[in-house]
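BACKBONE STRUCTURE TOKENS:
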Amino acid sequence: MLKLFLPLFLILTVSLFNLVKSKRELAITPPLPILPLPTYAQLEWQQREIIMFLHFGINTFTDSEWGTGKENPSIFNPSTLNANQWASVAEEVGIILMILTAKHHDGFCLWPSQYTDHSVISSTWKDGHGDVVEEFVNAAKARNIDVGLYLSPWDRHDWRYGDDLKYNQYYLAQLQELLKRYGSVKEIWFDGAKGAGAPNMSTKHDIQRHFNGFRYVNMGDEKGTDWSPPECDTSIRPGWFWHASETPKNLTRLLEIYYTSVGRNCVLLINVPPNSTGLISDIDAQRMREFRSAIDTIFSVNLAENCSVKASSQLGREEGRFGPRNVLDNDHLWTYWAPSDEDDQWIEMNEENEGWRFNVIRIQEAIGLGQRIKQHEIYADGKIVANGTTVGYKRLHRLEGVVHANQVSCLALSKRELVIIPPLPILPLPTYDQLEWQQREIIMFLHFGINTFTDSEWGTGKEKPSIFNPTSLNANQWASVAKEVGISLMILTAKHQDGFCLWPSQHTDHSVISSPWKDGHGDAVEEFVNAAKAPNINVDGKIVAYGPAVGYKRLRRFEGVVHARQVRILKGCLWSLVLHFILILFGTQISYYFREMNIINLLPLRLSSWKAWKNFDGPTLARLGLVFGLNLHPFSSDTGPGGSA
């Protein structure tokens, strides 16, 4: 019997099978993930599989694909526009995210933007009082469908386009307008399209990189640090906007698109453009229903649902949480088969009776733990019937004709392995917001409330609001002080333990409402917010400083002024010393690995180990420690006895 290999976490799908897990089984350590990893939002997005694109705008009324920006807004008049019909079509075909072209390249805005009159404001539709984006958002949310918005960076109408500073301000203002006005937006589309002949990155700059003497064009790096899933966009019609002369693609073509997008680890963004009356044409809606029905029919039955499954090995016991039968589970991302650490990893499904007749095979990985498969083959009764490279979230194989077999097995010709040194940076990683917050360094806290008038620290909650009366309260003065000292974040005690609220809360009268300050019409929080937003180591071989972890920043002040020609950093923790030995033995290979990872660029530092250990010139060890800054500050009498480093 042919035994074939399958990389870690392979899932052939298909229906829920609940397992009773013993305490012993639950105690088994899950497999280590391989970087990069998707975020929860990316996992959620990937499982949508199909998203609906709605190209609608002034081009719908000019029978064009790319407008010139010179169109008269008065021609925009979708007389029977019904966004509820759009959402209804999406709901019927199981789509839970729709994206609307709020502004295409012509610059015409489907919402009443305060930054331009080239919008629905100047149209005859609803006498200039309509808002397509608002109707779209409300219709989608009424059916629990998420929304996305397309905002073209290229604007052929606005005079500021071409002036980077002025246009960027205009564009960002419109982007903020959309995101603030219409609530939660799950996806934003920034289309990179621009007319032929216009300067672009490839014509203005030589972007080809040289790597080890060869020209190197990066089309995605499996050793990269960011999970970047692909999205395939296409239209149900030949064009993106509705044209009376065009008809939708046939079902065969749509299924071909599905197999080569969703079936190749992508999310399919399919455009269904509303017509000039403001409705999705009946023929388009019907084709989408046929498309969904065909997909459901093909994948509603898993012929292997009740088969026997064998594998080369597994973590835990026979039918444990990582057992081979998990490949038949519909909960693809959270239940999976995981073999033990062996070179040979294979899985095999058997039907002992009449066998199967099939022509589609679906393979999935538990991408929540990273993507491992690099190359695979599938066999039926010992004969190869399909092969491919990566799998990821989903890979669909359509076979040449119907295959009749009693045994299906999978082989991994190559897979990604964990390296000896775990990929850096070390998890968990800070978010962009956390990095930004860390760099503030100093934040101003403002304790202010009824305790200010009772000369106490912790109020009892029995204080009378009438005693709160800051007669000359000036939040601008607070913000001015913060600005003077370079503080960019202030925090106000809107409510302390005493329960007194500095804003007129609608849920209690134990607040400024009941105070004499401004006759009960004041709002300290509002004044605070408005005011805040308005102002918008080892030297020359002698130890002179040492300490524990560094983190974002560590300042060392020396005893006296240090005069030196060389500064060295020594990382004294045990794992660094072990890495020293590894670097001595495998320095070249590891340095190459980190260049591939492209983790960080560093200033050249001379780093040394204990006494007689080998010195390493260059950033190799610093890469392992992720050192990104080492500054020496000159002596100043203002800082006391010595500068800092």
Notes: Residues 432-533 form one domain. The chain has four domains: 10-40+301-415, 41-297, 432-533, 539-639. The chain has a mean pLDDT of 77.
